[in-house]
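User: Hello, can you help with two protein structures?

Assistant: Certainly.
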Amino acid sequence: MLVESRGDRIFNIVNHFLLIVITLIVIYPLIFVLSASFSDPQSVLRGEMFLWPKGINLHSYEKIFQNKDILRGYTNTLIYTLVGTLINLVMTILAAYPLSRKDFIGRNAIMALFVFTMFFSGGLIPTYMLIKNLGMLNTLWVMIIPNAVSIWNIIIMRTFFQQSIPHELHEAATIDGCSNIQTLTRIILPLSMPIIAVTILFYAVGHWNAFFNAMLYLSDKNKFPLQLILREILIQGQTNDMVKMSTESAIKQQREVEGIKYAVLVVANIPVLLLYPFLQRYFVKGVMIGAIKG
C-alpha cells in the first residue's frame, strides 16, 4: 500500500479545500436565481432571501407564460437551434471526414485555408453588406447560414476521426465494396458517437445563446430569438408591458419586474440543462480525444 507523505496530505487538503470553494462560488448564483424565481419579490428586494425560496409563489412564471413575445421567442429559438444544429453537424462531418483521410490529395492546403479564416475575416460591415446582398436580412437563414460551420469543431472532429478510426478499417470497407458515403454513414459515424454528441452540444448551446446576429440582422420582432427578447426585458426594462402599469402601483411593479427577471433566466436555461445529462456520458471522452490537435 502506497503511504502518503506529509506533503501529499497537505496538497490533498488544499486541493479539496479549493475545489469546495470553487464549487460553492459556481453553484450559489445558480441556486440563488432558482430560489429567487420562486420567492416573494419583496423578500428578494429586501435581501431577506439568502439561499432557499421565501414566500413561495409562481406569480412570475404565470406572467412569463402569458407574454406572447416570450413564447414567440421560445419557438423561434427552438427552430433556429434545431435547424441550425442539424446543418452545422452535417457540414462539419462532410468537411472533417475527407480531411482526416490520408489518401485525400490536397487536404493540408485546404486545412490551411480553413485555419486562415479563423484568424482573418472580412469584418462586420463587409459581412453585413454581403448578407444584405444575399437577401437574408430578416429571414430564418440569417441566424443559421453565417455560422453554418465552425473551423474549430472541424479540427476537433477531424482529429477524432484520425486518432480513433484506424486506416485499415477504411481499407477493409473499400475491399468489401463500400463507397466513401457508405463507409462514412455505416462505419465511421456509428463509431463516432462521442464526438458527434459533443459537437451537437457545442452547436446547440451556441444557437440557443445567440443574440448578436439577431440584433444586427433582424428588425422584425416576430423573428426575434428568445435571447433578444430576454435582453429587452432584462436591460431595457420592458417588463412594464407585462405588469399593467396603469393598474398597479410603481412599487408593486418593481417587485414583479424583479421576480420576472429571475424566472426568465430559469426558463431560458431549462432546455440546455435538460440536454446536457443525455450527452454528458460522451462529453469527457469526446472532448479529450478531439482536443489533441494533429
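That covers the first. Now for the second protein you mentioned:
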Amino acid sequence: MSMLNQMDMYKRRKRRTLKNKFFHALFFAATTIGLIVLVMLIYRVLSQGMGSLSWDFIRNFAAPYPEEAGLFAGIVGSLYLMGIVAVFSIIIGIATAIYLEEYAKKGKLTSFIQMNIQNLAGVPSVVFGLLGLTFFVYVLDFGFSLLTGGLTMSLLVLPIIVVSSQEALRSVPSDLKEASAAMGASKWQTIFRVILPAALPGMVTGSILALSRAIGETAPLLIVGAATAIYSLPDTALDSYTVMPIQIYSWISKPGDEWPLLAAAGIIILLIILLIMNAIAVYIRNKFQRRY
C-alpha cells in the first residue's frame, strides 16, 4: 500500500473518531440535561411539599383553610375515574387492535384507519375535552358527572392503547400462528390461545402507561366539569367528582403562601401513585415477557 493511501485512510479514521466523539458528547449532554431538570423538579416539589404531608392531609376533604384541607376526595375520585377509563379504553382498545391486525384486510382503508389512530394519539388533550363536552354532556345528557369524565379520558388514551396493543400483536412470531393453523386450530382459537398470551405483557404494559397519562391530565376534566372542591364522595357514576390534578390546580391558583405548599404535597401523592403504576407495568413486562 502506498504512502498516499495510508495517509488517506488515517485521515478518514481520524474523522470517524472525531465524529463518534462529537455525537457521544452530544447524547451525553442531552441525557444530563434531562436528568438535571428531573432532579431540580423533584427537589423543588419535595422541599415545598414534605412539610404539608400528613395522614390528615390524605384523609381530609377540601376546606376553606389550608391547615384543614386534604386530598381525600381527589384521591378517591382519581381511582374511580381510572376504573371507568380502564374498563372502556382497555376493552375497546385491545379489541380494535385485534381486529386491525388479525381480521381487517390489508389495504388503503385499513392503512388510512391506522394512520388516523396514530394521529389521534398526538392530538392535544383539550380537544378531547371539547369532544366530551359536546357528545357526553350535551348529546347524551350525562351532565358534568364522573361518567362523563371517565369516558372523555377513555377517548384520550384509547389511541395509545390501540397502537401499543398493535405493536404487541406484531411482535408475536408468525411461526407460532402458522404452527397453530397447521394443528387445525381456527382463527379465534389461534388468537385466544396463542397470540393473546404471547402479546398480553406488551398490551398490559401499554395500557398501564396510558392510564398513567390519564391520571395526570387536567385540561379535559376542566372542560367536562370536574369540581375544584367537593365535600363528599360520588355515590354513583352520575354524581359530581373531583380528581387530584384539579385540586392541585385549584390550590396553586389561590392567593396566599400556604396553598402552593399544599399543591406541592398533592403533587408528591400524585407522583407516588404514578410511580406505583409504572412499577407495576415494568414488573408485568419483565415477569411475563417471552423471548423468541
